[in-house]
Every structure is written in C-alpha cells, then in structure tokens.
Design goal:
Largest sheet: 7 strands, mixed
Strand content: 15-25%
Distance between the termini: 15 Å
CATH topology: Rossmann fold
Structural class: alpha/beta
Radius of gyration: 16 Å
Helix content: 25-40%
CATH class: Alpha Beta
Bound molecules: glycinamide ribonucleotide
Mean pLDDT: 97
Amino acid sequence: MVEKIKTCVFISGTGSNLESIIKSSRDYIFPIKIKLIISNNINARGIKLAKKYSIPYKFFSSKNKKIFERNSLFEIKKRKIKFLCLAGFMKKLSSNFIKSFGYKIINIHPSLLPKYKGLNTYKRVLKNKEKYSGCTVHFVTPKLDSGKIILQKKVLINKNDTEKSLQRKILLQEHKLYPQSIISIFR
Ligand code: GAR
C-alpha cells in the first residue's frame, strides 16, 4: 500500500470541513492521513471531532501569533507532517511560518476567488446582487486568499437567498470540494 502523507489540519470553529476530510481519509486510496489537529479556539466544535475520531489535537491561543506559530511548528515537525490544510482557520499565517514549514499548505474559502477575499463574503455577495457565488480551494501564500487556485465550485444564488441559506448551500459544496482538491494535488 502507498504510504499516506502525514497531514495536519488547522481549525477555528465548527470543523465541518475537517469532518469531511476525516471521512474521506478513511478510504485507503485517499492520499493523506490526519495526524494532528490544531485549534486556536478552545471552544471549537472541531476539537470534539478530534476526540470522536481519536485524532491527536492541540489547542494554542493565537493572541500572540508568534507563539502560536512556534508551538504549532514544533508539534508539526515532531510528527514529521508534510502537508497542512486550513479548514475554517480564521488567522493569516506569517511568511516566516509558511517558509519554515516548507511543504504545501492549502485553504478553503467561501467565495469564487479572486472575488471576495477576506471576511463577510456572503453579506458582500448578496449586497452586490451577484448571480453566483461558490467556494475555492487554493494554495496558501503570505498574501491573504491569493495563492494559486486548485478547484472551485459555483453555486447559483436565488432571489430569496439570505446570508444563512447561502452559507448552507456553499458549505455543502465545500464538503465535496475539499477532498476532491486534496486528491487532485497528489494524483
Ligand atoms: C467555511 O465556510 C470556510 O470556507 C470558511 O469558514 C467556514 C468554516 O466552516 N473559511 C474562511 O472564511 C477562511 N477565510 P467549518 O469550520 O464548518 O469547516
């Protein structure tokens, strides 16, 4: 059997993308295995998922970004992790961290990048009366939401869509797009 790539997932919240990656990674042909989950939020539901699926996890506060990154890097190197997925991780990583890690880092974002980088994407998309929105998986660079795009999925916006309904619709697509993107990277 081909050895799976040792992977770490960074989260800040619900962790529904984390769960979709965990489920996909149980398939023996899926290219990665999650060896560590790091949360910068002690109350993240994603931590409960780590426990549920018996995956090692760490909480590090990101109030001091330097210390957060130093602690994370230590744990990552210790476990020989060679791939990092950001799944609802709401902090920007420093160029120093990205360089020191030295392997691929990917992120999922709830818009059709390069449109609507940053926060409050659903609100801005609806305000601009866009016909479509969607989600993007991309490589992480020091510039926010700007690295090379791996895969995107378009979602049609209805007249009666609200921030909540749009978020729900896009999230459903994210859960498919993230595993597909990981497969496409290592194919
Ligand atoms: C997802 O919609 C993800 O695209 C977004 O946060 C949500 C996390 O949900 N990420 C960003 O906005 C990053 N800038 P989850 O915790 O249930 O996976």
